[in-house]
Amino acid sequence: KMEENSSDSTVKTTWNRLRPDRYNIVLLVLLYILQGIPLGLAGSVGFILGSSKISYTEQAKFSFVYWPFSLKLLWAPIVDEIYLSKFGRRKSWLVPAQVLIGIFMLYLSQNPQLLYSDTPNIPLLTALFFFLNFLASVQDISVDGWALTILSRNNVTYASTCNSVGQTIGYFIGNVIFLALQSADVCNKFFRSVPQDYGIVSFSTFLKFWGYAFITITVLVAIFKRESSTYSSVNRKSLYHMYYQLYQIMTLPPVKTLILMLFTMKIAFSIERISGLKLLEFGVPKENLAFIGTLLVPLQIILPVVISKKTSKDPLDVILGCYPRRLILTFLFVVTIYFTPSFQLDDGSYPMMFYGLLLCLYFLNQLTYYPMFVSIMAFFSKVSDPSVGGTYMTLLNTIANLGGSWPNTLMLSFLDYFTWRKCEVSGESCVDSCTEGDQCLIVFDGMYIEFVIGFVIGVIWLLKMTPIIRKLSALSERNWRINK
Hints:
Layout: H1 2-18, H2 22-51, H3 56-62, H4 68-71, H5 76-81, H6 91-109, H7 122-150, H8 159-181, H9 184-190, H10 203-224, H11 229-232, H12 239-250, H13 253-264, H14 271-281, H15 286-311, H16 315-343, H17 352-383, H18 389-418, E1 420-423, E2 440-444, H19 447-473
Helix pairs in contact: 2-7, 2-8, 3-18, 6-7, 6-10, 7-18, 8-15, 8-17, 13-18, 13-19, 14-16, 15-17, 16-17, 16-19
């Protein structure tokens, strides 16, 4: 009974603490959901392209669509400092960015042939989705900066929870739900009594719905939500001063150390991205992978909320605890990929036992990924200087995103070069095809070379960075300020 009373007391205390900010928390989650939808959609397109048997070099080109979130530092000072005071410092960019995303989705909905063709135009698709994610990155800068002022100082660390929960739901909608509902097999199995050769939702209808949804929600936010004048009325600064301020942040000793940590932390985990493409290569239907993602969504939503209390105390300690576990999971993923062909049945399908194995692996992966993600976001919120909150948060988020983007793109770019293929009949080396009547087979998969490289780097990173990170975690907030 004492434990129950203690638990009830903790829940009540947390609720009382969050109650003044409850509507703002709902708004932040909604805005982060909108932010996650273009990212999820880009992931869906990557899966569809992977099913089209395009090369990993082409996949590497398309992976550049995620780079706006890794380059947003370049335009963050502009978003942070050029605004209309009467309209609101954050809404000045949030509103036009979201309206343009809606308009852009409506345009893409009229051109489904860009994706569904025998030979997809990868450079054009990359350019289009790069621009869509560029707009999402502008929205991200605005929301991250707004989160620092829309929440009370006591609750500002919950901004990371809003980010994680909202982006997870948005990514789920743009990725898992879209892939499932556009699949004829999934819809016939779960939603129809009479089979059809098409899904419930098409590429066009999905984009059209969310295009109008983006515009509608944005108009409502623009009309009914007012910004606090606390930071909207600060004196204007020149862009030169803003970029110089950015330079000042980057030259702070703790920030330089944090940048090194963020830039190298995810090298070991780039194999996670490749493993999903390998499953597609071995004939695992993308819809089934999406269904596994559906089963994990409750965990992805609950985890950030559950661990938010822990991350508010010592976020970096959570990262150090999860890192070796996630490193071990990369090994288990590679072992699973190696044995995947042996699970395949005579008709090309895979048994439920195999999907159960994948579900367990992805479940364990989420138990390490989300605590790390929420923890690093909470640490950013904790150390960011509110007076330059948008720029400060964006700098740290940019480096974190770049730390994940560059290893993925680099590993995908070299995967074909590390892979040895030869023609089945002639025995000659090949890239992706042979002469008519012959077949290009993989003799040695370059994924294993890249895994060994990443794993070794991960072990070295953990050994070298652990004492450095502990010192970083012990610093006071004053060490992170540019005006002390």
